[in-house]
């Protein structure tokens, strides 16, 4: 199972190590550093690195490498999933997951890690349970602790750990009972030069924030459950019920959680809400090129597209760009060659555009790769797949909860080739 | 007020200061001090000197302080074992605490203290905790057994903890079950032989119940454990699959992949006609696609596994090509894997899309990725014939970009396309030649040289081109040198008049000025060939090459099957069996897919089995491990060498005038200018003194029919056995055996007259039998057989008699008549007399056939105590017409792939696993695959007879 964990920052310092079995010397990370050196970018460091006696599995999040050391045959996905869970837990505990924050809270981090694994076997990974065992630091609690001498370690057995619903703690009490659900869909798409869609798929999630007293039993039904044929559920969802009735029935965890994630890939179901018109040319003879892009709405179901940001990695040969946007602001970083244009809202009457010239390195040959345009945008109050929640009911408790459902569509990996 | 304050005091007296604080009377101060110690520990500072002071803080009611001290103990106990004993009492006391959290914490921490002396004290508390009333304590104790086993395996066995652990599999709490399974699996991994996870339908049922209720991690442990079980029949397999499929919708990708493993394995047992089989196939696709929208690290592992899955069952993802399209900001390791799978899924239906994508990728920034994309275009051309033309034109477009590495990569793949489709796309050669100068990588240069040599007759200035390479001959890499040598010899054979000087130059460069033995040897061989028999040389060097395969990198079917059992593990990421790389994996048990044990399926009978050549629907495959070019180079010299030149090796080998008359025949009517003086013979020492002699005697041996029974050549012949005792046949005793010599089968009989009268008028007849064996000539006993006299007769047999399936298959019923009576007896003939001489299958055919024959036809046997090495086995079997098609060394074991053909045209394919040099493992493992599985048993017996005698 998982032997050790090293946290390494992007400059290659090991700033935390935790061993769940015997101590593995940190020199094992040298193999990781080698791989890191070979990879041009941090993102390209291979996730599985073999060394003579160990295997290093790593994830790169928030500019930190989380490197797990294993010695025997362990499912790598198990390790990587666990590392993601560590990242999520840190974020949950400290708001952000960064090197300074981890260093500031090193003892809590250490205690949490100790609770998450025992001898490399996962012990408590649900944040509900962890928070009962080790209270997350808050300014108030730190002050109180110093005055009263109490601790941030709970001395009760976390009851949830043994119940059939380990994700929920008992004795939850709220004065305002509320349950909010966010249906968030991200469109991943590749659009080719001519504007036709090569691939498009929707990654959807339903995130919930449930603050309900007691042990509520919820059911959530959809207007069009047929859309959901590829779904992953939170363990709380009763799979049998879904199989037979297409209804989500569950006792929710307390607080924020992801109820389900789904995937819609049938091409005809994926509407593409924006288009990009582009005209980028690097002329052979002169050292100037032309650059023009226009963004416009396509299938938006009458909703406004906002938060549009266009980014593009220019070829190495580009020295500078002098561009003028019809709206928003743009920047070009001559070092990383990254062009970024913060467009904002798209007004269908007056389409935003960015025009100008590209100056190329004198004498250098024409760049042979065309820049790909990356698009970010948001559409409020719309699930692009058309998924709609029908109703939410609560059983098992007497009070009347406050319910709310929000829809949102975002660009995921939305790429336009030029 | 953050923890960073603990790092601030890094002055000289730090340890001293901490010591004082740890011994402070104030609780709060103590705790702060311990926190400082822990903080120092986490960043790797040595604070072991504070051990006694920290341990003193252990006796406390403060849970946080206690936990902190435990953290410290786990880290440093090993370096201070004597001190650690001090902590034992507290642990034992805590194990009795009314609070289960404290009990669990104590037993958990004790297990982490890797000190022998402590483990002794651990046993009693652990035993109690394993039977604790609180499941939380039990589940912690289960893991503790695994910890203890890691420290002292013997102790765990002696104390009977393993049995307790096994009992926990039936615990009422799913979490306890999951942890027990996890602990047992880990222990079992270090003891592969022990039968710890002894699964039966009852325990499987318990696991399946727990599967629904335990945590995601527990589900992974249980699923991985389930995957080791082999259901007894297809019904059980189906019911397990049904209960596992809901796991495919789990949010945890590791759960999903473990579930996929179980399903892929058990699916093997389901009949393809079953409706459920189709349903299951459909259910597998969406979760695999979903894995690809996860984080890149997860994607990578998923893609490596999908790579295996599409090779095993391409139908699952055949419609999902688009999800493997590459996004420009995917990490490089994801890009490369996606590309690989794209090619595997490429088919006529989607090739246009794939090519458009590949062309797009070829203009990206990342050099490695671009190269692989170009290579992929070539692989598409070879895989999908209809697309070849389009691929070639795409490659030409790419060559026009003049981007150096794109051009080089394109030329390498175009060479492969030429190999696959000869005489089809040679019109592009001119374009290729234009780019000659820009080639600076050995592989591209070698490919270009190969093209020039291969098509020398169509390239007007081929000699100039090759000459230009020759100038810097010694600076080239070996790959290029070898290729250049071959290319120039090809050129010479095609255009002998103009290129004579060139060939001499290259031969002398290769043989005299090079210290590379491969190059020298090849140089000498060509030289010798050219000088002795140019016609033969032509046949050898310009021999028709076998077409190359469409997939050069398919994983071998047996390895693939094994890897399918390891889906989701490191083995699946590396595409190697765990024994090949996992530390301490000595004697790892080989996993294999379960055979299909359908209760109602009828077995193919030999009569209905398609006799003769195996069907050719499967792709032809050459399993080249290295690069294709190496293969090409070898092929030039490969099979033909043993052919024509030996047959015509009548030419005398003189020291001088090596090229003499031979070349004349090649040159026809242009006698002048070639020959003797210009061609200096290679140093005699390097030439094998007499090629002809040993071969000749070998041949004569081979044809020596008279040498009779038991000579070196021919199949193994068993000693004669008594078939018909005298008592039963009124004094006639018949003993005999079967032989096979150079294609003819005979029955060697010894007839003995034990009666008192003379015997005459012998005749013999066979009943119909499985292989149509019949006497080819009448039984001729020339003189009457007097009493107490015996005669030896060899009766030639053929296999054109009438056929009837016998039981056992190799049963032969014989009737012998003489002047006294007719006698009947039956005997079993060894199957190897039916193995024909042309039973060697070529490698492509072998692979295709192996894949084609359904797995349920595979039979496995063990040949015990056979301490032979691969060569000995191979040659011994070859003399009985069992031919070795290929040999590989996998993880220190030799794998022989063999083929044989029976007289009725049934092919039998075999895989023989040998562990050479291991005196403890003299058993050979034999897997046989045949369309008529009934013969397997007899083929196995034949193997055993041949190898043991």
Question: Can you characterise this structure?
Answer:
The complex is a heterodimer of chains A (418) and B (949). Chain A is α+β, with helices and mostly antiparallel strands and 418 residues long. Chain A has helices at 29-38, 76-94, 99-104, 106-116, 127-133, 139-148, 239-245; strands spanning 2-9, 14-19, 48-50, 55-61, 64-70, 117-118, 121-122, 178-191, 197-211, 217-222, 231-233, 247-250, 255-264, 274-282, 288-297, 306-313, 318-325, 329-333, 338-344, 353-360, 372-380, 389-395, 402-417. The model of chain A has no long low-confidence stretch (mean pLDDT 85). By secondary structure, chain B is α+β, with helices and mostly antiparallel strands. The radius of gyration of chain B is 37 Å and the shape is globular. The chains are: A alpha+beta (418), B alpha+beta (949).
How would you concisely characterize the structure shown here?
The complex is a heterodimer of chains A (418) and B (949). Chain A is α+β, with helices and mostly antiparallel strands and 418 residues long.
Strand tally of chain A = 23
Q: In sequence order, what are the helices and strands of chain A, one letter per element?
A: EEHEEEHHHEEHHEEEEHEEEEEEEEEEEE
The percent range for strand residues of chain B is 5-15%
Could you estimate the helical fraction of the residues of chain B in percent? 40-55%
Mean pLDDT over the residues of chain B = 78
Q: Label the structural class of chain B.
A: alpha+beta
Structural class of chain A: alpha+beta
User: Over the alpha carbons, how many angstroms does the gyration radius of chain A reach?
Assistant: 25 Å
Could you name the ranges of chain A where pLDDT drops below 50 across 5 or more consecutive residues? none
Instruction: Please summarize the sheet with the most strands of chain A.
Output: 9 strands, mixed
Low-pLDDT residue intervals, each spanning 5 or more residues of chain B: 598-713
Helical proportion of chain A? 10-25%
Show the largest interface. Answer: A-B, 103 and 106 residues
